[in-house]
């Protein structure tokens, strides 16, 4: 079922493509602290890939390596089969990798609409001079074209009524949704979600889960997510990587992972005799 | 004619993204333009032009420039006076070196020269933020003033060390020099301010403005979304210095006519314009106008009341005036830390719902 380049078909009948991103022997050190130790795994096109593990296991660091914010001390990252050199975060964004943050990182001084419009930055090419001209130089036309795409995402995530509200005034659950919208506006190939459901109540979690599945379904976006809620992870994801103390201790479908002895030990603890 | 959104439906993104989405606002804006261009020039005299109108127009340009840097991009700068000096000396050198070229172009080119200088002094912003950056820009202020004092080439080796604006015309009308009429000064500065405000508005409502604000609000998230911090910060410095350079050029050539750098473009100027931006409202074009109006009009107003109405001696009035202005600034900032623009916004919000606020 897991042939390297062929992809596979999930239980619910979705076609998963070939490997879009591959992490090879990634090690990440901060001084003496080893955050990630020799981890390899791959991400396939169109799948929902979860990274789980106890607190401090190195999940967020892993996500930061994928998003290019950390450059791994050792190991290689392949994106679409090409080795990715050291890059600035904004260059990675242009490759089509977008993310949300564990503690919301929206632009508080801007409206919801402007926040989501910033997600379109990588698609907007008009420079300073044509911006200054606005109507005469086509910047307005470009703006409105992109506005149309953003409005589709606003519809999709059902946040039409808060379009013009300053982000600072929104409740937590909506902020999370706006952040997802901003990431989606970039039309990413890979979407990284860092604890998308942290601090939400059951209803909000249900909404968010539905949005994640819809995004994957509608846009075919590959999704990598970190989440603590096991119920959500097992329901949503196609394959799961389990980390503990910077090492990979399990990798496979939710069912495989659930029955993995190392994983059970890491989560429940091992009896010492 | 009421201040209402009801019934004012937007059916295209073009309509939705206009500067004044409410019809009443739009009409008011056109009315202001008509008064400023059509009516004021007919009545303006030397006193009003020199004491109120021209300084207001020029400071408004400088405040818009500084607001782009501080209010939109979140980079604190105390180098405004120095950058205005660059604009002033650039326009002086251009006016004396190329007397045949129209002064309008000299002013614009002086803006571009200032933009280049601003980018150089903006380089530290890539590494340092906040107060530390403020100190770094303070260095620009002192260095530039020192430079224009020290190197005689900048003031064409004149004996006094001053620069004097030669007489120049636009469409045959004098705009600099002793023969300039109040109306010409006013109109020239007004046209510049209108252009600057339009460009500033266009920049801040589009991609460039959003990049600046993203860097201001959360630089790490901005970078991960695809904002290049290098070009974004430097573009903010460039645009900001461009406007400030234009303001400096006008301040010297049109308003003062003759200037000595330490006196005209000292550190007080940097603070004055920073106060305008803070009092007017950070991150608001309207705020720049409001702040400039407040700090230009208030002293004139107080002087008229104290000397004209109450009959106090001029020197006493001058000191009391400073104290009152200072006190008002403090009181005002405690009452509304987000500036006049925020007051205006709240007032409009209330007016929109009036008389049924619930």
UniProtKB/TrEMBL annotation, chain A:
Molecular function via GO: ATP binding
InterPro entries in alphabetical order: AAA+_ATPase, ABC_AA/LPS_Transport, ABC_transporter-like_ATP-bd, BCA_ABC_TP_C, P-loop_NTPase
SMART domains for the chain: AAA
Keyword field: ATP-binding, Nucleotide-binding, Transport
Sequence intervals crossing the membrane: none
CDD domains: ABC_Mj1267_LivG_branched (cd03219)
Location of the ABC transporter domain: 21-270
Pfam families the record matches: ABC_tran, BCA_ABC_TP_C
Gene3D superfamilies in the cross-refs: P-loop containing nucleotide triphosphate hydrolases
UniProt name for this protein: ABC transporter ATP-binding protein
């Amino acid at each position: 079922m897991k042939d390297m380049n062929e992809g596979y078909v999930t239980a619910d009948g979705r076609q998963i493509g070939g490997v879009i991103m591959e992490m090879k022997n990634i090690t990440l050190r901060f001084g003496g602290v080893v955050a990630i130790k020799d981890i390899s795994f791959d991400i396939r096109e169109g799948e929902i890939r979860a990274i789980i593990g106890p607190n401090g296991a190195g999940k967020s660091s892993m996500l930061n390596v994928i998003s290019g914010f950390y450059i791994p001390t050792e190991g290689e990252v392949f994106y679409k089969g090409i080795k990715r050199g050291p890059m600035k975060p904004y260059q990675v964004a242009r490759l089509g990798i977008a993310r949300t943050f564990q503690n919301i990182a929206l632009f508080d001084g801007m409206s919801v609409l402007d926040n989501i419009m910033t997600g379109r930055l990588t698609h907007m090419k008009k420079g300073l001079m044509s911006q200054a001209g606005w109507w005469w130089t086509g910047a307005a036309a470009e703006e409105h074209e992109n506005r149309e795409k953003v409005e589709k995402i606003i519809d999709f995530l059902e946040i039409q009524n808060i379009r013009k509200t300053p982000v600072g005034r929104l409740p937590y659950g909506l902020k999370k949704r706006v952040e997802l919208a901003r990431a989606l506006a970039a039309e990413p190939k890979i979407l990284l979600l860092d604890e998308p459901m942290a601090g939400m109540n059951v209803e909000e979690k249900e909404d968010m889960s539905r949005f994640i599945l819809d995004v994957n379904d509608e846009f075919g976006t590959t999704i990598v997510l970190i989440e603590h809620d096991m119920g959500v992870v097992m329901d949503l994801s196609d394959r799961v990587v389990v980390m503990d103390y910077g090492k990979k201790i399990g990798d496979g479908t939710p069912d495989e992972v659930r029955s993995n002895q190392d994983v059970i030990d890491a989560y429940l603890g091992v009896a010492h005799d | 004619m009421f201040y209402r959104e009801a019934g004012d439906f937007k059916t295209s993104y073009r309509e939705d993204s206009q500067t004044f989405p409410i019809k009443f606002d739009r009409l008011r804006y056109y009315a202001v333009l008509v008064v400023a261009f059509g009516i004021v020039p007919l009545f303006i005299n030397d006193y009003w032009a020199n004491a109120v109108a021209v300084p207001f127009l020029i400071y408004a340009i400088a405040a818009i420039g500084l607001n782009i840097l501080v209010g939109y991009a979140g980079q604190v700068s105390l180098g405004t006076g120095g950058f205005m000096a660059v604009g002033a000396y650039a326009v002086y050198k251009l006016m004396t070196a190329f007397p045949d070229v129209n002064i309008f172009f000299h002013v614009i080119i002086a803006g571009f020269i200032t933009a280049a200088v601003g980018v150089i002094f903006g380089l530290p912003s890539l590494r340092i933020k906040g107060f530390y950056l403020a100190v770094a820009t303070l260095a620009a202020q002192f260095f530039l003033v020192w430079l224009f004092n020290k190197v005689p080439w900048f003031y064409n080796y004149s004996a006094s060390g001053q620069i004097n604006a030669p007489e120049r015309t636009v469409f045959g009308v004098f705009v600099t020099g002793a023969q300039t009429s109040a109306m010409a000064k006013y109109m020239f500065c007004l046209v510049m301010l209108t252009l600057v405000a339009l460009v500033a508005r266009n920049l801040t409502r589009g991609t460039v403005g959003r990049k600046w604000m993203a860097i201001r609000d959360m630089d790490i998230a901005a970078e991960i979304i695809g904002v290049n911090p290098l070009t974004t910060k430097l573009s903010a410095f460039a645009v900001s210095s461009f406007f400030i350079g234009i303001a400096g050029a006008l301040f010297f050539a049109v308003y003062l006519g003759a200037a000595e750098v330490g006196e005209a473009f000292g550190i007080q100027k940097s603070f004055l314009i920073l106060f305008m931006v803070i009092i007017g409202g950070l991150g608001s074009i309207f705020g720049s106008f409001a702040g400039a109006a407040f700090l230009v009009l208030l002293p004139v107003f107080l002087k008229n009341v104290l000397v004209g109405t109450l009959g106090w001696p001029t020197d006493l009035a001058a000191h009391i005036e400073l104290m009152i202005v200072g006190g008002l600034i403090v009181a005002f900032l405690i009452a509304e830390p987000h500036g006049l623009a925020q007051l205006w916004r709240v007032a409009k919000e209330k007016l929109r719902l009036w008389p049924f606020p619930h």
